[in-house]
Amino acid sequence: MAMGASEVHQTVENIYSFVPTLVLKSAILLNIPDIIANAGPNASLTLAQIAEKLPTETPNLHSLSRILKYLSFRGIFVQTQTGENPSDARYSLTDSAKSFYVRENNPTSLVPLLLMLTHPVLMAPWHHLHECVLQDCHAFEKAHGKDLWAYEEDDPAVNEVFNNSMSTITNLIMGKILRCYDGFKDVKTLVDVGGGKGTALAHIVKAYPHIHGINFDLPHVVQTAPSVPGIENVGGSMFDSIPSADAIFFKNVLTDWDDESCIKILQNCHKALPKSGRLILAEIMTAEDSNSYESIEIVFDLVMIALANGGKERSKQEWTKLLQISDFSVVKIVALSGLPSKIKIIEAIKV
Known about the structure:
The structure is a single chain. By secondary structure, this protein is α/β, with parallel strands linked by helices. The protein has 17 helices and 11 strands. The strands form 2 sheets. Strands 4, 5, 6, 7, 8, 9, 10 and 11 form an 8-stranded mixed sheet that branches. The N and C termini lie far apart (about 60 Å). The model has no long low-confidence stretch (mean pLDDT about 95).
């Protein structure tokens, strides 16, 4: 059956769907959003004005104009034609670009996430996705011979890129968590398992200064964490043991692991908590019916295949089952609004 023009167009767009991300990355690496932002809150710059801020004496204005034209079409820049000559065009930032693509002094910047996901080391596993269908394997290990966590231990640069990205996501999420969930108010000692650089705990301790926070992650991760009053950085493996505390917090950690690994981690949490101790999870909770998934949930689930150790996104029923097997009882589920994914707070107590 012959395909219509619209079907062909959609097919070709799907094939070239890698282009927007990588062209945006080129603009980020050229620091163009910051160049425009540094010129003023409503700045509009010509090609020549942008080019003179680039780290080269011989910029290719023709290539630059084509990149900016495309990204303007994508709604990242605003192109204004002030004359008949293409070189008369001026470029400014959209509101979303100001919020998410400017790096300097911008706590909501998602540039670290973009640089992490498009890093050659983290792009390589996607070329092995099909092998996860043909055999029981992990794509990252197929690409690099070891899992992501072991790779980061051996490569400080990748470790830094990854943890910067996680800190960025945490900055975006923690404000929502602290506005929607008040379960930290009665906690005296809180362990953040897989806490990276301690970004989540810094938000929590700032909101609840009485809390003694323990940022718990692999030794090579916590050694990069800054010193923050009220927070103790502790290195170790959640598969061996977890520091004792009144409550234990996870944010987007258990999603990286298969069910068997999650149960092992949760059982270690059970040992670390006192009677009726509290477990607080901030994780994506998918719809029970896969037909009701939003596209971003499906993307995140594929990221788990590419980068994680058998990880996956889970529904309420799946989270509840894991917790029950590990002797926890779910007491509360709190939805967070204003986020691109369905992250929810799952509060459970030790039984």
